[in-house]
Amino acid sequence: MTNPIQIMAIMPHPDDAEFGAAGSVAHWIKEGRETIYIVCTSGDKGTDDINLNPEDLARIREKEQQDAARVLGVKEVVFLHYPDQGIEDTPEFRKELVRQIRRYRPDTVITPDPYRRYIWHRDHRITGQVVLDAIFPYARDYWAYPDLITEGLMPHKVKEVLLWASENPNYYSDISDTFNLKLAALRCHKSQLSVSRRNNLDKWLRERHKAIAEGKGYELGEAFYRVEIPL
Questions:
Q1: Torsion angle defined by CA atoms of residues 16, 100, 60 and 199, in that order, rounded to the nearest 10 degrees
Q2: Less crowded by CB within 10 Å, the N or C end of the chain?
């Protein structure tokens, strides 16, 4: 068991947390809240380049994620190496997420909203759902995984969950002062950005986050659905 951290981002692929929450992550880190990334896959299918094999792509994307995390000040990045486009709601996957939650003991977990409708990457949908199940009740309950107790991983109660990409956000974060850090972190994911997208990234992101912040009293924001976990 490691010392408790305050924020844990659990994402299906490299770059997901940068798109969904990097402005908030940078803000929380500036406030002194230690943050860790759990990356479920290495994104080995995320390319249009048929000459780039999955093994090489996985190495590229893991390095990009490490670079992005350093830009933001994330304390550690853990890769679980599940297959891209192969995330499933299995007891094994749930148990692995419980292991990470009990190991790092976060106050807050951020992850994709599994309830986004219609067109939504299956890995995002399933990861979000399994994260919620892992938090409650499995990470909390002593007898959920007795073998984890023998590993020294005692139960842990997460205090809150923030779901990014929610269609019904109820929690907003001011990222006006950390937008440039979010942009710099996203630029680390070169394999995911075409030349045209790279050139227009600043404008596209700024418009997106300005719309989120409309009427909030600040310039740029990120939005989440917040769930407080009953203790």
A1: 20
A2: C
Q: Count H helices, E strands: the chain?
A: 7, 7
Question: How many other C-beta atoms can be found within 10 angstroms of the C-beta atom of residue 59?
Answer: 12
CATH for 7-228, among 3.10.450.40, 3.40.50.10320, 3.40.50.2300, 3.40.30.10?
3.40.50.10320
Cβ(173)–Cβ(27) under 8 Å? Answer: yes
Q: What is the pTM of this model?
A: 0.95
- Summarize pLDDT for 56-101 with one digit per residue, the tens: 999 999 999 999 999 999 999 999 999 999 999 999 999 999 999 9
Closest residue by Cα to residue 123 from 135, 111, 133, 134? 111
Domain-wise residue ranges, the chain: 7-228
Bridge partners of 111, per DSSP, are 163
